[in-house]
Design a protein that fits this description.
Blueprint lengths: L5 H19 L6 H8 L3 H7 L3 H24 L5 H17 L7 H8 L6 H23 L5 H22 L8 H13 L5
Helix pairs in contact: 1-2, 1-4, 4-5, 4-7, 5-7, 5-8, 5-9, 6-7, 7-8, 8-9
């Protein structure tokens, strides 16, 4: 078996930590478990991630990047800006239906690390600001009469869907997320769609 490069080790360790952190929470998973589950030595883990905070921050950034990648893939299938907005909420609804769904990694991280100076907290805050800004930009393109308000409302819907499905499960009201978002989008853009 060929030895992994430093970058391969980094990706492998991060993938293992991502699964553990998302399933159990960052604070509940010690570095010893990451070492054990990754099957690499202590020195290799700490060479790639000198502290648990560094690994937690890389995890949150990776989840933030993956979220945008998934949502851009969903929106890129449509030309109509309103349909692009709706595609986000269709994808969110799909996410909440997965058996592995454990909530929004950004909201979970923000709860676990409430200190605004913690690097993982900062990543979660920046991500939510980027999501809100993207929603606003799409709202402008969709012709919303008040794009700022629509972005705020849609961010509330998005976070509410994630939080509600986390607590009440996939069959709760979160399954209505896309329909609710469609009504808000149509009202804000003054265009009735069928």
């Amino acid at each position: 078996m060929a030895r992994r490069t430093g970058e391969e080790n980094r990706r492998h360790i991060l993938a293992v930590a991502t699964g553990l952190y998302y399933r159990h929470g960052i604070r509940a998973v010690g570095m010893d478990l990451v070492v054990k589950e990754s099957g690499v030595g202590n020195a290799t883990v700490y060479r790639q991630f000198p502290t648990k905070d560094a690994l937690a921050t890389a995890y949150v950034q990776g989840r933030a990047d993956a979220w945008f990648e998934r949502m851009r893939e969903a929106t890129d299938r449509f030309d109509d800006p309103q349909e692009k907005l709706l595609a986000i909420f269709t994808a969110v609804t799909e996410d909440t239906q997965l058996p592995t769904f454990r909530g929004c990694p950004m909201l979970n991280t923000h709860t676990e690390f409430p200190d605004p100076e913690h690097p993982a907290n900062r990543v979660s805050v920046v991500h939510k600001q980027r999501v809100r800004d993207w929603l606003r930009d799409l709202a402008v393109a969709a012709g919303a009469s008040d794009p700022e308000q629509l972005a705020d409302e849609l961010l509330l819907v998005l976070n509410g869907a994630y939080a509600t499905a986390t607590v009440l499960g996939p069959e709760c009201s979160a399954r209505r997320t896309a329909d609710f978002a469609r009504r808000i989008i149509q009202a804000a853009c003054h265009v009735a769609r069928h």
